[in-house]
Amino acid sequence: MAEALKVEVVSPEKVLYSGEADMVITRTSGGGEIAFQAGHAAFLGVLVENHTRVFQTDGTVIDLAVHRGFVEVSGHPTKVSILSDTAEMAEDIDVARAKEALERHQLTLKAESVDATIADAVAGKARAEARLTATGTGFTA
Fold this sequence. Notes:
Layout: E1 5-10, E2 15-28, E3 32-36, E4 43-47, E5 50-56, E6 61-74, E7 79-89, H1 95-111, H2 115-135
Parallel strand pairs: 1-7
Antiparallel strand pairs: 1-2, 2-3, 2-5, 4-6, 5-6, 6-7
């Protein structure tokens, strides 16, 4: 049997997940999605808003919305640490609220208002999309 990863997903508020997994998939800045399995080389990356998946050793998948932060891979046995500015378990996400936020940010972007508003809308849109993808409800572009 292959060695399991030690995985921790931590936000400033709490430890969202701590356990063993076969694989973790997350998204880094400029690098797209990246998967980690036991034996992965040491790694440090900057995270963007994304749907992170933790594939547990029992076959279940933990879905999280991760809103920026860092991912670090180290040691033997391999340990994956996700240190997020904000992270949410899929089951804790208010889908209706996330959909409303996505629509609001999309309207702001279509209006092409001031630069600061556009930057806020882009960031808010990315957070809402990560939330909806993590819950499996998806979104419309």
